[in-house]
Amino acid sequence: MDNKVFHLEAWFNGYVQGVNFRYTTTQIARQYNVSGLVKNLSDGRVWLNVEGQKREVEAFFEAIKRRMNQNIEDIQTKADYRRPNFNSFEIAY
Fold it and tell me: What is the pTM of this model?
């Protein structure tokens, strides 16, 4: 897998907007070697688009789920390997 990294997209449903979900996700990202973005969607969901080594991405994702558990009702995910797209982790608007 030349120059490819593990990539995860997640769509969080529930009471996830207006509760510092994006800010908290960004703070958690600082503890892991991941890059990508988190964004509020117009339909009320939050979209996570993250990449890095599989173990780091999965640990980061689990940390978000633990920390924001009371706000999350459902999560849809899609994962694969692809070329890196990001240099840092940030909130997208």
Answer: 0.95
